[in-house]
Amino acid sequence: MRKYNGLTFKYLNKQRQRTALTLLGIILSVALITSIGIFGESIKHGMVQQVLDLNGKYHGVFDNLDDKDISILKKHTKVKNVGIQTPLGGYNRDDSSLTISIEGWDKNLINMIGRSLVKGRWPKDNNEIVLEGWLLEQLNIEPTIGNKFTWKYDRTYLDEEGKWNNFESEAEFTLVGIMKDSPGGKATGSSLSLVSINTVKKLLPKSLLNKNVFFWINDDYKIKDTLNELQNNLNIDDDNVRANYQLLNTLGENDKVNFPIIFLIIIVLIATVGAIYNIFHISVIERIKEFGTLRSIGTTPKQIKKMLFTEGFFLSLISIPIGILVGFIFSRLLISNLSIVNNVANEVVVSFKVIITSSIVGLLAVFISIYNPARLASKVSPIEAMGNDSAVLKEGTTKKRKWHSLLNSLFGITGKMAYQNLWRNKKRSVVTIFSMTLGCILFIVFSFINSSADFDNILDDYLHGDYTIMVNRGMEKYSLKDLENINNMEGIKEVKAIKFRGFGFNLMFNEGKVNSDFLKYYKEEILKLPHYNQEKKNGQYLLESDVFGYDDKTLSKIDKYLEKGNIDIKRMKEKPLALLINSRVDPGYRVGDKIKFNVSLFDNDEGEYIGDKEVKLEIGGILNFYPVNMGTYSMGPGIVLHEDMFKDILEINGYSRFDISIEPKVKREKIENKLEGITNKIPRGTFIDYEKEKKLLQKQKRQINIMVISLIIVIGLIGFFNIVNTITTNLIIRTREFGMLRAIGITNKQLKKMVRLEGMFYGIISAFWGSILGTILSYILYLLFKQEATYMKWSTPLISIIGVCVGTIIVGVLATLIPLKRIYSMNIVESIRNVE
Amino acid sequence: MDILKSENLSKTYGSGEISVEALKNVDFTVKEGEFVAVVGASGSGKSTLLHLLGGLDKPTNGKVLINDRDIYTLKEKDLSIFRRREIGFIFQFYNLVPVLTAKENITLPLLLDGRTIDKDYIDELLSTLKIKDRKEHLPSALSGGQQQRVAIARALATKPSIIFADEPTGNLDSKISSEVLDLLRISIKKYHQTLVMITHDEEVAKTADRIVTLEDGKIISNEVVVK
Ligand SMILES: Nc1ncnc2c1ncn2[C@@H]1O[C@H](COP(=O)(O)OP(=O)(O)OP(=O)(O)O)[C@@H](O)[C@H]1O
Ligand SMILES: [Mg+2]
Description:
By secondary structure, chain A is an alpha+beta fold. Chain A contains 29 helices and 22 strands.
């Protein structure tokens, strides 16, 4: 027993080069899995961090809890942190352009949400209040601590009879601190002001007091399950539960299975297992003769199997830890170098899970890989193995194939030999070609993913240029003159002008004409709203809707959101033809339907109400996305008109939004100053600079690029390593044959040609299969991804195919360099004697 | 006329304490058309001598002249071409290319040289060596004797002026081996070739024109066989 284990080590030691190759192969493969794991974990960690920074550190909120339940939650072993929110109401101003809510928060909640002070301190009792800096500016309140001001506040509530009521009051507040602005607050015109919970208790009647509880679940427990458990224990209505879905999704705590990612991981796993399999297979085939000898002296098949498994075990023992280390160093290098340019993954997260998974996958791959070769080795009959060449063809005669004579005439006898040599050991060649093919597939698939994520398209969806000037409330609009001024500025590439009205544009509908979901939504949600105009007009229901007037440029670029119908710009210009956006509210209208709207008209200069009119619009197309939104939405669907038709129908001359793109490399500051000047003509106008967002997206894109490229490099390395391994072994086994060929006068050049052709054939065959399968797989992937990533486009990946062909041929030829050198340097006599 | 001549030929393997002097200052001449048998104990340097004479290895010292041309001054490529045109080798182990058929193996030196194949001659070789019906088979499907005959045919295919054979019949039974030897003899007579053959078999050696005996890397006797 001990003796043949000793034999294992002797083999490992004797065949140092092969052992080194085997080790290297396992190390590379394990390193690949490890670094993918670390990468994934680090990015996830970074993304979770971002969500936490943005939304706050809570898993969910239970609304309207009583003090008993709150204390249960606070003491619960599965809950780590609890923060309490008690809304006071909204600051009631005559001007409705801003939404200012006043809330009482406890210290815990302030910490959980991550609000911080710029100045002063957090509020205690006595009507102390903390405001956001930008709000002070907007309201013209002196940013001095101790400043006192009186605010009216109101609160709508459902009374006992289920009717909406309004509570109004006023109070004098003392400014004790200034908070950091919340992101996006200014753009949407919403702001949060904080008071203490006691202040709220004092200012609201008891019946209106309610406490919402934010909680963070202990890290040891499953979030979703615990959330449900808490809800059941405390007997809380579904309506009063708000999970932090963005966080849960990022944490992967949603039930959705991410097929594309799983698909990618499977491909990578196959590539890795394939590589390790290849290595072991070759190493066994190489030693067939030795196994034959062992068998002839009475070693049992079981003993041979055991020997090989021992070998695999020891190889894994050495290479898996090194592979994990290499993977760690590799991903660390990558991430820390990337963190200069990005902030998605700025920390290398190495979890126990990744290490265990990589080890298990590595070990499993080794054992799966050994299983077949071990069976093969144990089955070797002594006679077969003792034959004069371990790599003999099974068939007695060659089949006369046209293919062969073609090769013969193309490359001469050396070409034919090269091709035949490829199939001397079918299994080995198949395994090699398989692993190279996998490399090609991965290359094509990854470069498809990379190229299909069309950056400009994504940018288009979320950013509409470099700057936006927008006014989304009130009557004031920017004028045609403003537009011309911007257009005439130096360095401006394009301005898209949008007209908009978010009120006084009411969809008129009858019960029968809309779908039932919509009717239910209308009756149960909208009609119950306080102050909602419940009046019917001419016997029809009314629903406030958003209406946009797009210019030709914008209309011509929104095809990708078109679900049905078409965008006929020419007709839209002249006829009351509209596009309906159904992504938020879908009344169920179809293309060709004619719908009526009740339009309130106002004077363009004074903003005075003039009167109402009814218009009939025909639906020309249906969009599934708001190509441009104004940051606020009405209750009804969105309607898009041509700007000319918009002007005719709504009698509005001005613009509500300009999306401005600038030429590259112009002085931003100068442009920004001028644009801000134009923006500030209207007090409520907002100027948005997308530079940061754009840079962030670009960084992310670059990061994805680097990730994909490094993945391709590692996979390419494994493929390259595989083919070097195969070709080297292929050639070393034939040392004697080469000696003989040289003895009978083959020149080095001819030898080189033959060996190189052999490498090239590997490349060509792998490229052939890789291109076909890669193309198919990338298409499947496209089908899988399509729903989530609408910007994806698929076309035959010709460039990758060419890359793959050139790459594999180069790799195939390169792989012959080292063994060729060895053959040249070997003395002919020595090679002939080389009867190993 | 001397077709092959070695002057002061020496070969030392390795260096220092473990060095082996396999050949020591061997001067050796072979006339055109001669059949020389090289005999000697195992390890006496026979194979080493043959390899050096055929330009397969580099001597430590001395020269090999074939047709008065010092073969070791030739460039690697020229030496390869010289070998495939002028010299035929037959090894103890047949050393055939496993992926090529018997016929392809035989014509391989010609193909490598880009020469047109003299079909009649190859057919003649195949029939004299009695392997005509096996010519489309791969080496793995041939018996040892058949493989050796293919190797002999390959050595003869280019009609080389000198044939070096290292125990060509060492692996064959006596009946086949005498047949193979007869063929060799017929061939060299017919094409006026020179043959240098290593053998352990005294009977075989006696059929040669001359017997050279090696011992410890030196020629200790060089006798013309009296028939
Ligand atoms: N590559 C080598 N390295 C070291 N020593 C070698 C090498 N090749 C041969 N020798 C030594 O040189 C001597 C001559 O060897 P050679 O093969 O010429 O003998 P031989 O006469 O052909 O023997 P045999 O009849 O057994 O074939 C032997 O002592 C051998 O051990
Ligand atoms: Mg010998």
